[in-house]
Amino acid sequence: MSSQSKLAIVRTGGVCVPQGFRSAGVVAGIKASGNPDLALIVSDADASVAGTFTTNRAAAAPVIVSKELAASGNARGVVVNSGCANACTGKQGYADAVEMADQAASALGAAPGSILVCSTGLIGSLLPMDKVRAGIAAAAADLSDDDEAVMKAIMTTDTKPKRSAVEHSDGWRLGGICKGAGMIAPNMATMLAFITTDAVVDSRALQSALSEIVEVTFNSVTIDGDKSTNDTVLAFANGASGVEASIDDLVIAMHMVSRSLAEQIVADGEGATKFVRVRVRGAVHEEDARAAARSIAESSLVKTALYGNDPNWGRIAAAIGNAGVEFEFEKLTISLNGVDLLSEGTPAAPETLRRLRGSLVHEPEVTIVCDLFLGTGIAEILTTDLSPEYVKLNAHYET
Amino acid sequence: MSSQSKLAIVRTGGVCVPQGFRSAGVVAGIKASGNPDLALIVSDADASVAGTFTTNRAAAAPVIVSKELAASGNARGVVVNSGCANACTGKQGYADAVEMADQAASALGAAPGSILVCSTGLIGSLLPMDKVRAGIAAAAADLSDDDEAVMKAIMTTDTKPKRSAVEHSDGWRLGGICKGAGMIAPNMATMLAFITTDAVVDSRALQSALSEIVEVTFNSVTIDGDKSTNDTVLAFANGASGVEASIDDLVIAMHMVSRSLAEQIVADGEGATKFVRVRVRGAVHEEDARAAARSIAESSLVKTALYGNDPNWGRIAAAIGNAGVEFEFEKLTISLNGVDLLSEGTPAAPETLRRLRGSLVHEPEVTIVCDLFLGTGIAEILTTDLSPEYVKLNAHYET
Question: Which residues in chain B are closer than 8 Å to A325, comparing Cβ atoms?
Fold first, then answer.
């Protein structure tokens, strides 16, 4: 039996699907809208912890604090607020992040330093600490094994809550929730994801599995090429099932859940009209494939063409040319939704492109496949088109 | 007397300001619009030649041919067509580029291989060679020392012709024309620039001057981050003034003309509502300053904020954070049109930002200055804002 067939998708549910995890989401008043904005995800017992964090050098205070806390390899959970990123906030911001983590640990009766902290929202404002303190107390009193509330409390510009979970035939489970790098207001658009499992996994195996899947799931999503100051993925393993997970099965379970969450992020890109998969194969090696796919997915010209239902292979070829990777135009083959636009350097007939343009109008999903015919490197990046709506929403976000 | 004060700006004129250069621009019928689309720039006598070419690996056929021809260090001029880029056209495209150069040399009675070739326009179509041949003959019969016609014949989506020239007190002159990476349809938006001088300069000095100024002029312009398959800058020096130029004076003259042309390209970005200068100083070294300035200038979030008249320092700081350069948030200072948005990590008062937002509505030029206070590295990049119009124009260009 292959690893994948031992894993079944759990239809509804996220971080509370694994045993021994509870969560809460409450209105603390950080968001002016009055929507839920403070969340807790907590394991009943001590858990292994792993994390990956933004590479943006302007990393926010909670990122720095959580990195420090995660280094021990053990934690009980995480406190999260939305509405304020606590980024670019200097020493006071750092002190606030430390206090937020301490308050949460104390409210939960957990050891100091055992609760990590994440923030998402506007850059450059200090946290309203009174509201945060009261919110933590309220959330701690409201823990349950339902994850509806926690999903909503971590949202900023997301229009839909996002979760996914799987169950292994040996009896352990793995679940996750996330919020996306929505297109409306990416300066509020931290990508946060939280993964829980009740499998028995030590923190090194957990970190290694997380590091392996992040590149091909969350890091393969690009909306506008900007990395947030707050991006964080955390994984907790509390061993409550009593079943040890093999590293292979753990990686596959984590990949399934993370891949689903990443696709939900792209599908929820507001201002976007198309869900776009960019696959590059036949590159000299995987890094080249990834660079080429990213260059296509981040090209404003390719993205505006997709918005206009224009199967413009010239822009795609030029984006590959800009990626700095090995390729030979004479071998290049580009297809879009299964229709060849370019076959080993020869363009499709104009009628083919016209017909495709007509059918793209009704097509919310686009898959671009580029074959370089040079080697075995493959990669996939998920993105969206670029619409006038995106520009308007980003231009007028604060007004 | 400093080098700069020995150089006077020539009010009107471009490539024909230096002695012994003539040009022509005619309607060959390559453009469906019936606008001029075939141009010649020719020196009466043999000239030193230098060039810089696109780094896009999908370089067009004329780029490959001109690179080969320029390697000799000598040439008589260049033939240019607009309306068709002759890019991604395989072996036939290469043969067409060679033939176009040969035809032009023959029509001008010049030695084979002494006329270079450039193309700009749609990617992926073959040149209509009948029209090209007839156009070359017509242009060769129409050479004059006026550069109105040549400026127009190299345009694609540019709305204004672009030229600049200077005169040295010793009696030599240097002039240039260019077409821009317009925002309407950057897959037609090759940046082509041609510089002529009648100073006595050997091809090595000419190449070294050109390489020195390209990075801080044409390569410091970014509209959408995509490099064209056809970008080319060529310089010709025919020595007709009989005056030798010092390398310092040559670099300064070339910098003045190229800088003016680069600014004209940015000012002509259609769909753009603002001309944006991004200056970074105090970086550890120049490469860091350039990387930070480019990251800001290419950030969709910064550019949409500028369109919305939003002095959003958080997006600027996050873009610096994404550039992978040394910086400390506590030292970071960001100003916009002279108003400090962030002073050594401390944000301006909300009233200041509100007032600035109000005044930006009426301001077509924006200068962002970021000081990292770490070293002496400085750089400047020119760009535009990102408007809904840009997206619409690029999405519906072919429809």
Answer: 57
A354 touches chain B (CB under 8 A): no
User: What span, in angstroms and rounded, lies between the C-alpha atoms of A292 and A233?
Assistant: 25
Write the DSSP assignment of B80-146 as a string of letters. EEEEE---S-HHHHHHHHHHHHHHHHHHTTPPTT-EEEEEEEETT----HHHHHHHHHHHHTT-BS-
Q: Are residue B223 and residue B360 in the same domain, yes or no?
A: no
**pLDDT tens, position by position, B317-356:** 989 988 989 999 999 999 999 999 999 999 999 899 999 9
Instruction: Report residue B399's pLDDT band, with 50, 70 and 90 as the boundaries.
Output: very low
Residues spanned by the domain of A390? 275-395
Assess whether B247 and B224 both reside in one domain. yes
Instruction: Please report residues of A whose CB lies closer than 8 A to that of B56.
Output: 318, 321-322
Decide if pLDDT at A280 tops 90. Answer: yes
What is the nearest CA distance from B394 to chain A, expressed in angstroms?
A: 6
- Active-site residues of A, by number, are 190
The DSSP code sequence of A74-141 is EEEEEEEEEEE---S-HHHHHHHHHHHHHHHHHHTTPPTT-EEEEEEEETT----HHHHHHHHHHHHT
| Residue B263 dihedral angles phi and psi, to the nearest 5° | -65, -35
- Work out the minimum CA distance from A361 to partner chain B, whole angstroms: 12
> What one-character DSSP code corresponds to residue B364?
S
Question: Rounded to an integer, what distance in angstroms lies between the CA atom of residue A311 and that of residue A363?
Answer: 12
Are the Cβ atoms of B318 and A58 closer than 8 angstroms?
yes
Q: Which amino acid is at B127?
A: L
Q: Which of A267, A294, A323 corresponds to the end of one domain?
A: A267
Judge if ipTM > 0.90: no
Q: Encode pLDDT of A79-94 as tens digits.
A: 999 999 999 888 999 9
* Residue B70 and residue B133 in one domain: yes
Helix (H, G, I), strand (E, B) or coil at B367: strand
Q: A389 to chain B nearest CA, in Å?
A: 7
Query: Of all residues in chain B, what percent carry a pLDDT higher than 70?
Result: 94
Q: How many domains does chain B divide into?
A: 2
Q: Is A312 in contact with B226 (Cβ distance < 8 A)?
A: no
Residue in the structure block whose two tokens are 């067409």 = B96
CB contact under 8 A, B57 and A324: yes
Chain A residues touching B310 at Cβ < 8 A? 395, 397-399
Average pLDDT of the residues of chain B: 91
**Nearest-CA distance from B199 to chain A in Å?**
36
Q: Are A360 and A312 contained in the same domain? A: yes
The 10s digit of each residue's pLDDT in A340-365 is 999 999 999 989 999 999 999 989 99
Owner of token pair 């349809």: B185
Cβ contact A81:A37 at 8 Å:
yes
Substitution target in A56, A57, A389 with the highest count of B β-carbons within 10 Å is A57
CATH number of the structural domain spanning residue A391: 3.10.20.340
Per-residue pLDDT tens over the stretch B114-129: 999 999 988 888 999 9
Structure tokens at B267: 């000012």
Q: Which residues of B touch A312 (CB under 8 A)?
A: 187, 398
Please say if the pLDDT value at position A145 is more than 90. Answer: yes
Catalytic residues of B: 190
